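Technical appendix A lists one of the benchmark inputs used to test multi-chain prediction within the project. The record comprises two sequence entries:
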Amino acid sequence: MDQVDFLNGKTRVFGIVGDPIEQVRSPEMVTWEMHQRGMNAVLVPLHVRAADFDEVMPSLLRLHNLDGLIFTIPFKAKALAYAQALGPQATQVGAINALARHPQGHWVGEIFDGLGCVEGLRRRGVSLRGKRVLLLGLGGAGAAIAAAVAGEQPSCLHMFDLQAERCERMAEVVARISPATHIVTAPPDVQGMDVLLNATPVGMLGDARLPLAVTRLPPEMLVFDAIVKPEETPLLALAEACGCTVVRGREMMRGQIAKVVDYFIRPS
Amino acid sequence: MDQVDFLNGKTRVFGIVGDPIEQVRSPEMVTWEMHQRGMNAVLVPLHVRAADFDEVMPSLLRLHNLDGLIFTIPFKAKALAYAQALGPQATQVGAINALARHPQGHWVGEIFDGLGCVEGLRRRGVSLRGKRVLLLGLGGAGAAIAAAVAGEQPSCLHMFDLQAERCERMAEVVARISPATHIVTAPPDVQGMDVLLNATPVGMLGDARLPLAVTRLPPEMLVFDAIVKPEETPLLALAEACGCTVVRGREMMRGQIAKVVDYFIRPS
């Protein structure tokens, strides 16, 4: 037959909105996940120029067969304004990376970066409950990871970012979510920590640096790096050399995609 | 790999805009044709409510990785306003069914219904040059077919539509395009005709009627029906019973898709 089997007039359309757009991985990965769930749906890249965002968004949301959007750089904070209701993570973090059309017709928003990290760890059999966690970087993804980790009730959450106001702000958020967690905001120290999470960009795309000043890591430590490219960052290379358990950015991405598709299917 | 192979961040996006949208066949057929040409591209259904068209269109055209749109009911006439330049068919017919992003950045429009019909016939080895052609129906598709048939310089073009002003208007258009063609606008008569083209909706979706009052057709006649569903219309059934050569709506659609993808690749 002179036709493809993954598109037709009944296909529900989803999009990832970003500027630039060519580097995104959601089209191939989210579409795969939706097909695994039996959905007649595709997620396409939508390159919206930053200056056009507020003009284009209302029209996209008016497309009658468009059921959800994912947002990437630089739109995670601005997209919040288009959600008529927010999930608990988005409320805490003040940003969204997914909008879904609620069965009642309005748009609901949530952020899944942090939930994806927790889901990626859960899939490796790792629970953060009662653990001592060191989190580096509290930008967009890091803030979401802090909120999601807090939801798992670690015994201690040590957060560090070069911008002190980010540490203060997230300390308040974490205290609200998990009052029993001991919160530390100070320069990083791996001593006594069970889990190290890197949410800084240090180590990305050929950057040979480590996100903290260490020459070795305790072998019983679990080390996660949110960076997707390269798959093997300098931090993960050191962790492996030291015998640590390693969890990669791709596993967070897979966890996040599963959670986003759950949300697209049952927006709440 | 946990990903599909037909979508990524570099995929160029095309859409078909209509209301309703579920019945369209372009997503699977145009995407197939684009993949055959080696393009990293998909054509997705875009359900724009008729009342939203003029609000949504400027935003769609601002999507930086969207390179073309196809228009179906009820937008072929309204879409004309969004083309900064028109192809020759669109200029004559006053409607477009495709908009393409020109390399210089502006949008150009053309209508391919008629060109698709001529291409469908050409692929069956049929030339209309010097032929006597009877065309029934001068609505959107019919008018486009009249203009495209005129471009082939038939010796005679007999057109009929229940709305007399459509006949008058298309008689003028055909005279401009092919001054040597003998034009007839009168109730249809198959006598002496080489080719019968049905562009009326009579015979669609279980309608048991014929688009003209005949009980048989000359066996040397070529009979084409623009209707796609059902594939076998009452007219085509009669034509086959009478030994005529039969060309189906699907062949026009294939011809049209080839022409539209040519246009998307090299907008002019």
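The helical segments of chain B are 26-36, 53-62, 88-93, 113-123, 140-151, 164-177, 234-241, 249-265. The longest helix of chain B spans residues 249-265. Comparable benchmark entries are summarised in Table A2.
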